[in-house]
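Consider the following assembly input.
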Amino acid sequence: MPDIIEPRVLKGFRDYLPDAEQARNSLLSRLESVFRSFGFVPIDTPALEYAEILLGKGGGETDKQVYRFTDNGGREVALRFDLTVPFARFMAEHVEELYLPFRRYHMAKVWRGENTQRGRYREFMQCDFDIVGTDSASADADILLVIAQAIRALEAGKARIRVNHRALFNRFLARAGCLDKSVSILRSVDKIEKIGTGKTRELLTAEVGSGIADEILSFIEPGRDFETTLEKMASFCDKNDDEAMAAKQRLRDVYEIALAAGAAESLYLDPSITRGLDYYTGVVFETFLDDLPSIGSVCSGGRYNELAGLYTTRSLPGVGASVGLDRLLSAMEALKRPLRRDSLPRLLLANLGEAPESELHRIATALRFRGLSCEVYPEAKKLLNQYSFAQKKSIPFALLMDASSMGRQIYPLRDLERRSTREFSSLDELAEFLKATKA
Amino acid sequence: MPDIIEPRVLKGFRDYLPDAEQARNSLLSRLESVFRSFGFVPIDTPALEYAEILLGKGGGETDKQVYRFTDNGGREVALRFDLTVPFARFMAEHVEELYLPFRRYHMAKVWRGENTQRGRYREFMQCDFDIVGTDSASADADILLVIAQAIRALEAGKARIRVNHRALFNRFLARAGCLDKSVSILRSVDKIEKIGTGKTRELLTAEVGSGIADEILSFIEPGRDFETTLEKMASFCDKNDDEAMAAKQRLRDVYEIALAAGAAESLYLDPSITRGLDYYTGVVFETFLDDLPSIGSVCSGGRYNELAGLYTTRSLPGVGASVGLDRLLSAMEALKRPLRRDSLPRLLLANLGEAPESELHRIATALRFRGLSCEVYPEAKKLLNQYSFAQKKSIPFALLMDASSMGRQIYPLRDLERRSTREFSSLDELAEFLKATKA
């Protein structure tokens, strides 16, 4: 006998067993329906790219997080670590074959050799959606409407989409004379939920003095409603500052559209939302579930000026968001929204060893023709074994064709949870019943 | 200005632009519906695994086709090159958490550093489905029924599933006294379509002499129908050979089930089908489209005795098949079955700069609520630009809300292909019309 190799996966990598994979597929397919209903189309890019493309010239040689190697042809290659960089390369390469504005979604795996403590994985799926080629309130709003509709489609309860505008914050800092420190100020403000107001004031005071620190804290305090908050934020800026007033108008336009589309109640103007990443230039947003705010934002993003500046001189402004799939999946589980129900088979045709195999398959075929999922147990094992199989697979019903029911042309259906049996006199009736009891 | 990096993908890798990705998604989702209707459940495994797991102990060090490298933690790792080996590892690792028989499908990318001539890709998607944990005619037949139903669901015309049984061939060779040469004989027979009967006879004669060569050629000649062919094949075996007679019975049982399930007309018993791979032990099969036989088999597979012998001592017999996705996609295109229609948006809400943005989004929301996909053009560009955008995206209709239609509360719909406009007096009517004209 040959040596047995221990079956195991790499640290930070996961197998998806059917329950988990069905849940993930259901989540993705519901998201996909929403994306499509707004005209977004799917794309895909290679898992492996030139290291130079993914990491930039000369960049990344110290980045331990990237899976990078030399292929058999001597090329420096790397596994993608996000979907944003490949999308930028994709747009630069294909913009002439496409149309603008280009709405795309991309659901695919990425790889990062991260520290696997604290539930981080080295292989995980990302889900990004963007509208590229337009700098308009309509596009900004569409991204927010997609998020609101996705939360609805997932039946994940109420959600708050916290919105802000980078320029409004920056122009306020400009008026206050500390725009040069904006990056570190944004970073400190970003921590406020984690470290509290007192600690944030300390950080800010150390950087810009207590007067401006208090002004910043006052700026980021939300008002009663969207309008009030917006007016308050604008009041911190110079009224003659065109950029600030354009940002104010943009937020107002986005809110108007959300109102018209019935999504305004999910929208909160939150001046403390900044998103750490440098490349955002306009609206930014994060999404929190009312029933589970602690898991953090389940969908975040914003507007950027240049998607593909590394690869093309063509200007490609855009707005987009990234769905936190792992977070959403945990949330759905915690909220007891059993996603995988979507795709479960409904019926096991038990094999009692009395009806011919071919007869079981004839019935199964007829039921599938009527739109039902079902499967034939392939061997005449003990009935209890077959029941236990059905239970493990969450199949709620078993059809028990024996010599007697074959002869009488009836269909005895066992409800495996209630442990009761009911007879049907035709396949149509049986199919109707099973459809009506659909989970 | 920083240096621009040339946007490009690695040789043998592909971007999927929306048309291609929509076609692929439609294909996958139709296959998935069929798998589910037979009780198959999805799984997923990591793209990256220990090299030892994928290549065996000491094996594969010379295999140039495998993307293999040392990760940042010093582990020898490799990208999966098929879905069979990871599935074997998966079953060995998780069999106790699962149930048997286990029906799974797996659609995922694999990577091979192959020569990219002749349309071979280094990254491509595989789609495998198997039933593990049973050696039964019922399971063998289910795999064939899935194939027949998948061809139907894809509207790919008629297909021939060519079936054979490895044991029947082998027991015939045993009787003829040349079982020891079965591997090379099978290989020669496998080439017959490519090299012709004459050349195959030459190869066989060189191996086993002309008498047995002729007997082999006679054995692999199909008869009038399934039954006749089966009887003829059995007549080449020893009647007291239990293994041969069991194989004959298995093929007959499978055929009975296919008859009962209405799939017998796709099933052809073809004694020349052998499948090159060593691990098949029972039924083997290949699938050819009647309208496009030249593209080769679009779905092949067979029964194997041991799935996971490398990783466990537990016996896991199974039967399964692999769908040739790239071939099927080319076939669907050649047969003019435009898969991507499934997922196209139907309507562009043109932006004439007269209706408020929020009004366009209000209408779009109302139409989505009625089950339609649509998108709002985000800027008031020239109408011709918007029409050209819709055409490039294959959107057939545009809604033209201007000041007049806003005032009169009517909905002017432009048929972009026929260049005609029609007015609707309510959103319900508009939605009904668009649904009724669904591609």
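The radius of gyration of chain B is 28 Å. Ask yourself how this observation constrains the way the partners meet.
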